[in-house]
Amino acid sequence: MAIGVAFASGLEEVALVLAVVIGLQNVPDGFAFAVPMAEIGMSNLRVIWYTTLSGVVPQVVASVFGFLLVSVATGLFPVASGFAAGAMLAVVFRELIPSSHGHGHADAATAAFLVGFVLLVVVDAVVAI
User: Fold this and answer.
1) pLDDT of 63-86, one tens digit each?
2) For 72-127, what is each residue's pLDDT tens digit?
3) Which candidate among 4, 11, 26, 108 keeps its CA 20 to 30 Å from the CA of 70?
4) What is the gyration radius of the CA atoms in the chain, in angstroms?
5) What range defines the domain where residue 38 resides?
6) Distance CA 78, CA 69 (A)
7) How many CA atoms lie within 13 A of 72 on its CB side?
8) From CA 76, how far away is CA 120, in angstroms rounded?
9) What is the count of structural domains for the chain?
């Protein structure tokens, strides 16, 4: 999947390096797959064919899935982020604010909330520049 994600993200060099490295890592796996088949008397051509299929097919399928997943995730990310932000706000408004104001420290809690909010806005503005 990492190969497909890298290609879809425009990182062709990284995707090619990943493909080579994963291909090299598959060599010992291929031997582990091929040796038992050869020991039971399967022909060399069939052993090569099955070993190649076992390494190539999953890699290609996972790469295509990763490539397609990037396009789907790109569209879903803003919606998912909105739901996550809404959940965080719900927790803050339903749990944290009432708890912080319930023990006689309402002014200090409100001031801390405002300072934190202003700090968040300033950091966001500085990072966005």
Assistant:
1) 888 888 877 777 776 777 788 888
2) 777 776 777 788 888 888 888 888 778 877 778 888 888 888 898 899 888 888 88
3) 26
4) 27
5) 2-128
6) 15
7) 7
8) 25
9) 1
